[in-house]
Amino acid sequence: MSTPAQESDGGDMLEKLHLLTPELLNSITAYSAATSSKTPAHGDDADRVETERRERIVEAAQAIVDAARPPQPEWMNQSTAGAEFVALRLFIEWGAFEVIPVEGSISYEDLAHEMDAEVQLLTGGAGAGVKELREKTDGESETNTARLAWLMVSSGLLEQVGEDRVRHTPKSRQLTESVPLRSMWQLMFDNSFTSSASLPRYFRTYGRREPKGLTHIPFTFAHGAPEKKFWDVLNAEPGRMQVFMHAMTAIDKQVPLMGPITGLYDFGWVADVVADEKKKSSSSDHNRPLLVDVGGGKGHCIKAFCAGEDSPLSQDRCVLQDVAPVIEVVRSDEASGLAGVTLMAIDFHVEQPVKGALIYYIRHCLHNYDDDTVVGIMKRTAEAMADDSRLLVAEYVMSNPPSRFSIWMDFIMMMSGGKERTAALWEEVGSRAGLRLVAFHGIEVSLDGHAVIEFAKR
Ligand SMILES: C[S@@+](CC[C@H](N)C(=O)[O-])C[C@H]1O[C@@H](n2cnc3c(N)ncnc32)[C@H](O)[C@@H]1O
Description:
Keywords: Methyltransferase, S-adenosyl-L-methionine, Transferase
Number of helices: 20
Low-confidence stretches: 127-146
Helix content: 40-55%
Structural class: alpha/beta
Protein name: S-adenosyl-L-methionine-dependent methyltransferase
Bound molecules: S-adenosylmethionine
Mean pLDDT: 86
CATH topology of the largest domain: Rossmann fold
Domain O-methyltransferase C-terminal: 289-435
Number of strands: 11
Oligomer: single chain
Strand content: 5-15%
InterPro entries: COMT-like, COMT_C, SAM-dependent_MTases_sf, WH-like_DNA-bd_sf
CATH architecture of the largest domain: 3-Layer(aba) Sandwich
Radius of gyration: 26 Å
Shape: globular
CATH class of the largest domain: Alpha Beta
GO biological process, one term: methylation
């Protein structure tokens, strides 16, 4: 028999469900209308619009799930998600997602064999047949019901076939097809999850204040090397650096939320500058770099900006700067697609060696650092800028209160001692570096306020 409290909870829930259901239907109708539209969006724009519309459906559906869900221990949900994350990370490292055939299924026993792992570790014993395994292990496996593969089967990431076989779902198949996606999962686990798990210990050690500086940050603390810098720890293991770079290179395409590269800022005015240079035939400006990508990784932004006949930027007038190990990787990659680009190893904390370039572009680097360090990097750039130079910072501009995505990003950044910033904070750090904030570009076209923030010399 239900209690009065339960009856009233049920009544509230029904009322909420009645209110929420039309939202879900509206979001589906909007998506359906957009996909059958005669004037569909193209390129990055299409990805963004598609994501936004699907996000709306997910949000509406999630609200219904939340309203209908019976009271259950939230701590259990959270820790189950954590357990699945760990299992997924292990399967990535052990190559399991590649061993499971793209079509069809594999027995747990064969999967375990390929991974050089005990079959009991994958399931509670399904691989050898539950009965046989019980016999082999004197009944120990009877209690072993929540092992690695089953964690992913229980969440629907993998699908079990019968009692002893497993196959891909569309979600897990993506992990085999996309190196960047797999790298992103790895990165989130190795860099963020493990660092955040050590936060209680970190704050007990350093006090309850924002991590500051390049060392003694949660990431290096969690790696047992608090006196080292983030990149020193990352670069110490070549494999990890590769994972980081893979994740950064193409994730923009698959997760438009990460911030589009193109479409936020109009480089059209550069064409006028180039045309003016041509008029002054003796001008030394002809050799002036048009764009320096500071901390540009593998150069994917330069490639995107120079692509297409209409682009006023050309690779032979661009400079790609990054730390020496990254530049070495790019230099030795014959397929880098960076013909003509000047490759330069730098330390952006010390000096900007290219003086007087037209544009200094720095994307997703500054959010890795605390305010004082960011002011330092911006100052080094300001010192190199000519009066007409521009500094373009591609980063998030957090609203107040921020969206769930940008505050998640802010939390991730805290691990390396960094943070996301509000418009006011961007203005403040720019001003401290001797720069004037000219404009925020593209905020309206990107989810969660990803923008290109334009600064000029004061
Ligand atoms: C988050 S990644 C961003 C890469 C690229 N700008 C993008 O948007 O995908 C940060 C980059 O900054 C580089 N970096 C880190 N410290 C640096 C330093 N002291 N000087 C120059 N580059 C640095 C890293 O190697 C990495 O490629």
